[in-house]
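May I ask for a sample protein chain and its fold as tokens?
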Amino acid sequence: MPANQFSQHTQQVLTVGQGIQQLAGPAADASIARSWLRCLQDYQLDPAQRMAPTVLEHSRVLESRERLQQVLEIAGGEMTNLHQQLSGSGHAVLLTDSRGVILNSVTGDAERKTFERAGLWLGADWSEACEGTNGIGTCLVERQALTIHRDEHFRGRHTGLTCSASPVFDAQGDLLAVLDVSSARRDVSRQSQFHTMALVNLSAKMIESCYFLRRFEGQWLLRFHLQAEYVGLFSEGLLAFDGEGRISAVNQSAMNLLGLTRSALLGQPLENFFDCRLDELLGRASPQPSASWPLRSRNGRVLFAMLRGAPRSVPTFNRPAPAAAQSTAQPWCMADAALQNDLRRAVRVFERDVPLLLNGETGSGKEAFAKAVHQGSSRAAKAFVALNCAAIPENLIESELFGYRGGSFTGARKDGMRGKLQQADGGTLFLDEIGDMPLALQTRLLRVLEDRLVVPIGGEPQAIDVRIISATHRALDERVTAGSFREDLFYRLNGLVLDLPAHGQVAIA
């Protein structure tokens, strides 16, 4: 970094420390400003200091690797695969422990010296307290996936790096590790990191899932998802329980699908949350399950599940047909005349390719109303595809929405996966809880709506013909004001806004 640029960067960081709000530049991002303030006020770091990285003694690195032996074994293959996916792009794939110490690195031989000069050594401590704002350290503090691009770093010596990092959690929700991809190339733009960040997120999720499966190998393990074809893949819910049916561990996807916190689930009987007797459930177990079956949760959601474990005999009795097997091709019931009028208006507007935005509390029947609009339109014979933006972990929404090319990451299907946008081609895409969509994906969604092209992870642009119905229980205009929802996307989605009553008067007859 030239001396004048180094000085400008230092001054920009120090200005934030003086409490001067930045309207442009890196510190205009609230998360970057927060991190810079931590570095100045909490860690007393100097952005202009050109100090060498803090590197642990070899014996301490070995101790740290021993503590994370299982994670390192699982992550090794995933890191190699991730580096291959980014081949030719000048990337280093790194895994750190929960303190930010680098324990494994995968990079090309020709580039290793470049990354070592940048301080990315085995045993180097990349916590915020040591190196200031950076992908690894800031990910540890924020506990979420993020990209730190060039001059968003705190230290001037790191402004040549671009780092995308994702946390890896254990079954108790504690942070195990951070998976990071760093690049020292000058031509890396922030926009180009969308693809890299998506791959890092998916790889981190694969490591989490594999660690969960190995950690609870000796217990009953329930695997479930809203869609049968996703059971056994990285976005599935995982729930471990003992022979008495008491829950001992859950992953984040399981909590999202059940709409409950970890504390509300741990130690509780499985039957409190699923509409199924324990002995019947255990009778479906298999040491290596391959087929899923419908399982209704107590909150009325129909899931698809597989159970890993030794099967137990089940008392014979006449089981009622599962709710998922009932026909969904039923007439729609609108509880009052106002709703019927809203439906007629919505269908007329929808036929002109005007997006609909449905406002209503959880349980008010927003998806049922959206299906009614779809079935009343000329697209009734085509697909109606729903995506709940609040029920899927943030780092998986991108793959769910855009899909991925075969072989994009370890655990991916060989023939890839069609995302929700592709599945809805020719029909209707219903985006529930749109207010919870991450900002980066809002940008990509807006581009899809404008260009009518979708780009799967690792794939090429594909033309699509999709009409959008979105829904939320949040006040999107307030989120726009707060900066958590794009104003241009808001105006693109609210062609017609309808407020549904709070008491669920929209239902299947």
